[in-house]
TrEMBL record, chain A:
Family stated for the protein in its record: Belongs to the binding-protein-dependent transport system permease family.
Membrane topology, record value: Multi-pass membrane protein
The keyword Cell inner membrane belongs to this UniProt entry's keyword annotation: no
Transmembrane segments: 19-38, 80-100, 112-132, 158-183, 213-233, 268-290
InterPro entries from the UniProt entry: ABC_transporter_permease (IPR051393), MetI-like (IPR000515), MetI-like_sf (IPR035906)
Subcellular location: Cell membrane
Native source species: Streptomyces pyxinicus
Protein name, per record: Sugar ABC transporter permease
Transport recorded as keyword: yes
Keywords (A to Z) from UniProt: Cell membrane, Membrane, Transmembrane, Transmembrane helix, Transport
Domain ABC transmembrane type-1: 75-289
């Protein structure tokens, strides 16, 4: 079998086949992720539109940003989103994980049930909550029954943003709960037992044993959820409408990107500048979380 | 390793387990009845909060046109359950065509992601060649790019290729996810080298080693990639919203958004639409929970 021709063939195959294996992945990644990334950076310095090629305009787009009220509204809402959603998503799933950690009868059912919102599309989730929080929806019907009266969750600017945040937290709970469950399973049981012998109650043990053990997981959850929260789009789009409320006061940064850059009259250049802000803040958030982690450790 | 495998470290002996099950936790320690009670109360409360909204949506979709859906106090169960709203939603928007479009997109996404990421992952994990480090770096960088920041450029790229407003255009950007490639790479790297070495000595070529030996050993990770590719494509909203403009090409999520925007007052109709969109995924999740949870663990560590 080992004729010279076969040997050459194998050698040639060794040289080319790795690239053949990697080619489809490299092609898709290059054409639809890396090229768009670079072209976003390039376009942010042009006045390109959907149907017009565009010219180099230097920093004009970024200068326009500074005077664009809608940009500041979007940045404010996306930042508020991070500030409110992240603490909730770091703490609540941990408590939930503690609740479902013990293997009591039926617990696998509860774990799976709590995960259901993660599986559903954000569009389904958004529309379910639009109906629940409707002026005449279930939540208001219940509030009226207990005598509180109806609340305009979806008509007030701030209540709407808060409701959207609640929906984000509701949908994310199960996901981060599973991450925490894995971390909790690695907490040595001896630590708990030793603390219990020393007379530490459940609350004390939570703060002195559990919390230090899952600290790195909390940082991970903070990093993941803050990046996701800053890029929020669907929840607010569905609950406030495509324009982010009557005067656009609930617009988020990514909603602004979508609204500015798409359609036949889309301002690709300006939307790209907005996208660059999304990149920069996303990276900054990651670094911030990781740095806060290191400082705490020191 | 699966997250739940770690969580469920129960006593090994099944007889032991059956006897002690009711009174002990996973470490074999006793659980007091009082504690058990408040745990179940809390569990049921969270259950009502997480699953309740889905059931309310289902209930709304089954209520007939004469039934008051706005009553206060609310009536949780439909008085006369009817499937009328499901036929109505199909008369209003081509919901089954949209479901078929979603299914096509999701199925294509599963195939391309499984094939593409297995091939590339194998090259990164097992094949030695110049440029391997650079290839790995390309996928790591691609994983870090936030999709929301490049959708506009992806849209112009699709226009340049003449693929905007097509289902192929919906599939392409996520066809081979960088994270899936890296997941497959790690799965292949964790296989013992010896088996493949033996095949190599026996004269098996790269393709045979990949297809017959390596691939069957990473079925678990492949299943995770498949499930998340399906769920990602079925649930996606922002990208199809941008790339599709022709209502006949809509996927379910975009169709639902359209339904909600146009017939917002008809809550029964929207409810029926959302039930159609979510039911397949809940069924999938019920059957394959293990892989869903495993994916969270692997994805979080890498992401």
């Amino acid at each position: 079998m080992a004729t010279p021709t076969a040997a050459t063939r194998i050698r040639r195959q060794l040289r080319t086949s790795p690239w053949l294996f990697a080619a489809p992945g490299l092609l898709v990644t290059g054409a639809f992720v890396l090229y768009p990334f670079v072209s976003t950076l390039v376009n942010s310095f042009t006045d390109r539109r959907t149907l017009l090629p565009g010219h180099f305009v230097g920093l004009a787009n970024f200068r326009e940003l500074l005077h664009d009220d809608m940009f500041w509204t979007g940045l404010r809402n996306s930042t508020l989103y991070v500030l409110c959603v992240v603490p909730a998503l770091v703490v609540l799933p941990l408590l939930l994980a503690l609740l479902v950690q013990k293997n009591i009868p039926g617990i696998t059912f509860f774990r799976s049930a709590f995960y259901t919102p993660v599986v559903a599309s954000i569009v389904v989730v958004g529309l379910i909550w639009v109906w629940l929080l409707d002026e005449r929806g279930l939540v208001n019907a219940l509030l009226e029954t207990v005598g509180i009266g109806r609340v305009g969750f979806l008509s007030d600017q701030w209540l709407l943003l808060l409701s959207a945040m609640a929906v984000t937290v509701w949908k994310g709970l199960g996901y981060y709960m599973i991450i925490y469950l894995a971390a909790l399973a690695n907490v040595p049981r001896e630590l708990h037992e030793a603390a219990a012998v020393d007379g530490a109650g459940a609350v004390r043990r939570f703060f002195s044993v559990t919390l230090p053990a899952v600290r790195s997981t909390m940082v991970l959850v903070a990093a993941l959820s803050s990046v996701a929260a800053f890029k929020v789009f669907s929840e607010v789009y569905l609950m406030a409408g495509p324009s982010g409320g009557p005067a656009g006061e609930d617009t988020t940064l990514v909603m602004l990107v979508q609204r500015t850059g798409t359609g036949l009259t889309g301002r690709v250049g300006y939307a790209s500048a907005l996208s660059v802000v999304v990149f920069v803040v996303t990276v900054a958030l990651m670094l911030l979380v990781l740095r806060a982690d290191r400082k705490e450790e020191a | 390793m699966s997250v739940l495998e770690k969580v469920r470290t129960e006593p090994a002996d099944p007889a032991d387990r059956a006897r002690e099950r009711r009174l002990t936790d996973q470490h074999g320690r006793r659980v007091h009845v009082g504690e058990l009670l408040w745990r179940y109360v809390l569990l049921l409360a969270v259950l009502a909060l997480t699953v309740g909204p889905f059931l309310w949506q289902l209930s709304t979709s089954l209520k007939g046109p004469t039934e008051d859906i706005y009553s206060s106090p609310p009536s949780f169960l439909p008085g006369h359950p009817t499937l009328h709203n499901y036929t109505r939603v199909a008369d209003t928007i081509p919901v089954w065509d949209y479901a078929l479009n979603s299914l096509k997109v999701a199925a294509a996404n599963v195939v391309t992601n499984c094939v593409g990421s297995a091939l590339a992952g194998y090259a990164l994990a097992r094949l030695r060649y110049r440029g391997r480090g650079a290839t790995t770096l390309v996928f790591v960088l691609a994983m870090l790019v936030p999709v929301e920041g490049i959708v506009i450029a992806q849209f112009t790229t699709m226009r340049e290729l003449g693929l905007n407003n097509t289902l192929i255009g919906v599939v392409l950007p996520g066809a081979i996810g960088a994270m899936n490639v890296l997941l497959m790479r790690n799965a292949f790297r964790n296989l013992p080298y010896e088996i493949e070495e033996a095949a190599y000595v026996d004269g098996a070529n790269v393709w045979q080693r990949f297809r017959r030996i390596a691939l069957p050993s990473v079925k678990g990770t492949l299943a995770v990639v498949a499930i998340f590719a399906f769920m990602g494509a079925w649930d996606d909203f922002l990208w199809p919203l941008i790339v599709l403009s022709d209502p006949s090409k809509f996927t379910l999520t975009i169709g639902l958004n359209y339904l909600h925007g146009t017939f917002a007052n008809d809550e029964r109709l929207v409810a029926a639409g959302t039930v159609i969109a979510v039911a397949p995924l809940i069924a999938l999740f019920a059957c394959l929970q293990r892989y869903f949870f495993r994916g969270v663990g692997e994805g979080a560590v890498k992401g």
